[in-house]
Design a protein that fits this description.
This protein is mainly alpha-helical. Helix content is about 25%, strand content about 0%. The longest helix has 7 residues.
């Protein structure tokens, strides 16, 4: 459930995801939504060239606080360092 109280299923998260518009994006067949723990870090993105996570509807709805999920991992990974 999102911070706003709205439920969002995985398909809706992928549809709302802004990852492909990010300056760090590498088009290699990944879907994005790296903020989801189930998705995790990108296997293709290695360079942080900018981040638009904070402008994403998914970021706001889930009350996320970190950035660069594509290279640094999910919210939980960044919080715990695991």
């Amino acid at each position: 459930m999102c911070a706003s109280g709205k439920k969002m299923n995985e398909k809706e998260v992928f549809q709302a995801c802004m990852c492909p518009a990010c300056p760090s994006w590498v088009n290699c067949g990944e879907q994005g939504a790296f903020c989801l723990p189930k998705v995790g870090k990108s296997k293709c993105i290695k360079a942080e060239k900018g981040c638009i996570c904070a402008g994403c509807m998914v970021y706001k709805m889930f009350g996320l606080r970190n950035t660069f999920y594509c290279t640094r991992g999910s919210e939980e990974e960044q919080k715990t360092g695991k």
